[in-house]
Every structure is written in C-alpha cells, then in structure tokens.
Amino acid sequence: MANESRPCPCDIGDRFDYGGRGQDVQVQHIKAYVCKPPASTDKAVIVIHDIFGWQLPNTRYMADMLAANGYIAICPDFFAGREAWKPSDDWSKFDDWLKTRDARKINKEADAVLKYLKEQCGAEKLGVVGFCWGGIAVHHLMMTYPELKAGVSLYGLIKDSDDISNLLNPTFFIFAEKDDLIPLHQVTLLEQKLKKNCKVDFEVKIYPGQTHGFVHRRREDINPQDKPYIEEGRKDMINWLNKYI
C-alpha cells in the first residue's frame, strides 16, 4: 500500500490509453520518443516528463499534440535509464528516490538532445515544455541554454528560496489554483521576484479550480467541468511557443 502521508501528492490522474504516433530512438546514452509533423520544419520542442517518466502515455499525447501543431517533439528519458516512479511505489521512500533524480542536474542529457535535434532533425528554432518534475527542469534549462527561445513550465515545484529571475528567454508558468503541491503564496512570490528582476518576457497564470497535473493528466472527455481549463492550458502552451519560436 502507498504510504498515506505522501510527501508528493502526485497521482497518475487519468492515465491515457494512448499508443503514440511517434517512435522511440536512441540519443547517445538515453532513449527518447520523437514525433514529427506531417510537413518538414526547423522548429522543435523538448517535452520533459513528470515523475512517472518518459513512457507515460499522457506525456506522449502532449508530444504528439505539439507535432500536430508543426513542431518536431522529443520526449527524452531525463532519468537516463533509472526507474520512473510508479503509483504503487511506497510514498515514504519518495524523497530518497528523488535525491537521485535532480531536475537541475540534466545538462548531460540536454546537451545530447540538443545535438540530436540540430544534427539529426535539422532543428534551428528550439523550445522546451515540462510537467511537474519537468517544470522544475524547464526553470533550470531556461536559465542555462540561450538557444532555447521559449519555455513553458507547467506546475513546476517552487520553493520560497528559489530565484529563477535570470531567465534567458521568454518563459510561461502555468499553475493550478487548487494544487496541493504548490501553495498560491509561492506562486505570488515567484511573480513578484520575476517582476522585480527578470529581463525577458514572462507570464504567470493560475487556472481556477484546477488541481496539480490538470493539463496533461486529466482527460477532457471525462472531466466536463474542467474541460475549458484543460483546453485553455494546452492552447496557451502552444500559443506561447508559436509567439517566440
């Protein structure tokens, strides 16, 4: 049984029964899922998974949605072969599990993916989106890699001590109003720091009544009351990428 005092109240949400339209490839030391649009393009987006890993159908669904909107989408295994978290795992061991998967220590993987996109896919205009654990990774990458022209962080955890004001390029932050994981005061504090110190375009948006993971882990067809916000979040993500890439 999962421990009830869960340090991370992440659940899988509505697991999509979805096979994916792309294919798995080897990118140096890691595997990745790649989906390409019907027409050739030099625009690509890196899609960063949550704690449930690169093979979660929900995340592949997001990659395919980006491909349908004209981007080469790649969802690499940023855990580099280490096991993803499973909903049946013991939540009392979650902190120890997380220590070996630091979302800010992914430069080796990011370097490999960027090289692959440029050399194998002919990508020149690059962006990144990330969910939950991947949202934290987006914060890190957008302060590290100037070639990433746009970032979208979806409910990436923030601590009061975090300062992510030195973003190098425009970044969009999506949060859920009723997120058990990210108190609204942290979102307010983040926005204040960005307004004070950030030199590039950014936007922080809170979606009313939504919970953690709503954009990629909830199925709009079985959550009619949430459908407008799920669709709005997805549309906002794509619009941000379109604007800056």
TrEMBL record:
Keywords: Cytoplasm, Hydrolase. One of its GO terms (cellular component) is cytosol. This is Carboxymethylenebutenolidase homolog. Residues 30-244 form the Dienelactone hydrolase domain. PANTHER family: CARBOXYMETHYLENEBUTENOLIDASE HOMOLOG. The keyword Hydrolase applies. Belongs to the dienelactone hydrolase family. Pfam families: DLH. The keyword Hydrolase applies. GO terms for molecular function: hydrolase activity. It is found in: Cytoplasm, Cytosol.
